[in-house]
Design goal:
This protein is α/β, with parallel strands linked by helices. Helix content is 42%, strand content 22%. It contains 11 helices and 11 strands. Strands 3, 4, 5, 6, 7, 8, 9, 10 and 11 form a 9-stranded mixed beta sheet that branches. Helix 1 crosses helix 2, helix 1 crosses helix 3 and helix 1 packs across helix 4. The longest helix is centred in the N-terminal third of the chain and has 27 residues. The chain is globular and about 70 Å long.
Length: 311
């Protein structure tokens, strides 16, 4: 026997909830939404009844969001973002309002195919509004989760972690990594790990990153990890510090083919295991792209394929 549970949650319920969760006040939420406090209170109570779960706790100090409420907030934001995309698609089909697309790109994509993709997209949808965010995996995934990004061109390790089941990843091409230093570095010709391990390292140590895979590879070979590490969460900071010091980084080998970066760095060919990754399109699983986002994703596929053939 199949039992179906129907949850009758309406759009105005979610709008009221998101505003209460944001402002932590029913009175402030009502004022912001131009509704009465009674209307907002009723919407929250109806939500709690439909979900059969407490969303708020009330005390003399005010209201607080429960763990169930926090989970609802994440899903409600995504639902609202999807409803906005649906409206955009319909208006676009009817020749109405402008299309919008928000994409996150890894630094390698930003410095290689992104300009050509944007040019292609502009010819196809000249009136569309575009937002481009640079970000490593640790920044991209939360933005996909809450609907701030439609999709991302990201790098992912071949052995993806179990926690990434909520994302879909379409690999487009392999991504090779290297150890890099500034040109003229006294150890640029080093070939042994012992020679460079003691250097200062500029690394992004977030979960699922190529740095994590690199450190795992060192441990598997019984090699000591770098002792001095500065944690950097943006490529720009990492690269700038590397070119102005004797610190080392791990980055895509293709950086040496991108001007002016190729003229600023040298590859250190130390005999250590390097991460194996792919660059590809990442989306939130089960979340369809808008027409504009799907169009841009196609242009990324075409340009990355051309770059692979040319390279």
């Amino acid at each position: 026997m199949v039992v179906t549970i129907e949850v009758r949650v309406k759009d105005h319920h979610l709008r009221a909830w998101l505003k209460v969760a944001e402002l932590r006040s029913i009175r402030a939420a009502a004022r912001s939404l131009h509704l009465s406090q009674a209307a907002v209170t009723k919407a929250i109570k109806e939500l709690e009844t439909e979900l059969d779960a407490p969303l708020l706790t009330r005390s003399a100090r005010g209201i607080a969001v429960t763990e169930c409420g926090d989970r609802l907030t994440v899903r409600a934001r995504l639902a609202q973002a999807q409803l906005t995309l649906a409206r955009q698609d319909i208006r676009q089909l009817l020749g109405g309002a402008q299309a919008r697309v928000a994409v996150g790109v890894t630094p390698m994509v930003m410095l290689s195919v992104l300009p050509d993709v944007l040019s292609d997209f502009r010819q196809s949808m000249p009136a569309a509004k575009v937002k481009v965010s640079e970000g490593l995996l640790a920044a991209v995934q939360p933005a996909l989760r809450n609907g701030a990004l439609d999709f991302a061109l990201a790098s992912r390790m071949m052995a993806a972690s179990a926690g990434e089941h909520e994302f879909e990843f379409e690999p487009l091409r392999p991504l090779e990594f290297m150890i890099a230093c500034r040109r003229g570095h006294p150890l640029e010709g080093a070939t042994r790990w012992e020679d460079i391990r003691g250097c200062e390292w500029l690394l992004n140590v977030s979960g699922g990153s190529h740095t994590e895979a690199f450190l795992d590879g060192l441990r598997a070979q019984g090699l000591q990890e770098p002792g001095r590490v500065i944690d950097c969460d943006t490529f720009g900071v990492m690269w700038n510090l590397m070119t102005r010091s004797d610190a080392l980084i791990i980055c895509p080998a293709g950086m040496l083919n991108v001007r002016p970066y190729g003229g600023e760095a040298t590859r250190i060919r130390a005999e250590v295991p390097m991460p194996v990754a792919s660059i590809g399109i990442m989306t939130l699983r089960g979340t369809p792209l808008s027409l504009a986002a799907a169009t841009m994703a196609d242009f990324f596929r075409q340009r990355v394929a051309r770059a692979a053939l040319a390279g």
